[in-house]
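pasting for the record
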Amino acid sequence: MAFEHFVQSGTKQLRCGYTTGTCAALAAEGATQLLLTGTAPKTLSVRTPKGWTVEVVPEVCEQKEDGTVRCAVRKDAGDDPDVTDGMPVVATVSLGEPSSEAVVIDGGDGVGRVTKPGLDQPVGNAAINRVPRQMIRDAVLDVCEELDYDPVTKGAVQVVISIPGGEERAKKTFNPKLGVEGGLSVLGTSGIVEPMSEQALKDTIAVELRQAFALQKQAGVPRPAVLLTPGNYGKDFLDAQGWSDLEVPVVKISNYVGDALDAAVSIGFEDILLAGHIGKLVKVAGNIMNTHSSVADSRMELLAAHAAVCGAPAGLTEKLLDAATTDAALDLLEAAGLKDATMARISDAVQKNLTARAGTPVGAVIFSNVHGLLAVTETAERLLKHWKEVRDHGRA
């Protein structure tokens, strides 16, 4: 059954799809139902973190001779050019010994395994990310609860996710470079794949900026301001810092740092601050204004270069260049006592390049999901202080 959710892209409507994580949860649900009831379900349904329900007919749901149950759901990426589109995602489920770990999840054929630190999962784990793992766990436990089966006392539900053909398909992804070997990753934070053309996304960002500017002008704000962030990680960080409560509009700009700055300045914003993850903003330190990995991926080279200027020896520089993620690189810098100095240099370069692009001072805040707040540029400090004072004065 087709997944009938659409997004607007210019004059076209593009159909959304669902992630490998959603497929894995659906397959695990179906296999658990057959295992515990002896009857294969005709349809499967799961509610994604985005809030949309995905309902599918399983490709196959069958009992194997060894007593395990195998259920497959075919990936549907909608109109998005996803490398995993059309691939079967399979859950093989069996019962283990009673355990406090009610659902045990692992990866099988075609699912990669983590070989470098700094990724979503620790080294040695199957590359099934945190949100998909939770979706699988919830789907299995929902079935157990409905059937009054207690996996803690009766036997843990063991789930192995596989993607036939995944090892070969993974060669077309960044997995080998990142340190995920032997297959694909099971991904997805919202459970949904939302396709959108590049120009349509830029146009959408510009529309949001214009709307934010118009609202401030209507409210009589003397210096229209905006807080830019690449995506959900940035928004979550701003929320955690309490900066989303500064009465300054927050606009998500995806990878289009340069285009968003151009639009913000041309629209008339006078105070601009960019808050982003080190994995994105370190590229801006190299004057890369589209941070998508398909455009440029010089994260480790830039980190290594700035660290070298701060005194990193050749051995450490080589390790930085070989790091799988920026968080892994930061671990190395922290152990060497060079993290703060390196981040200071990088943040200076980020602010310099942002200001040069915009033609006006632009602040920057850099963070890491693992290391927290890494750097706040001088312009960012001034803007944040001013915005807090304005907010507090208005509430007084």
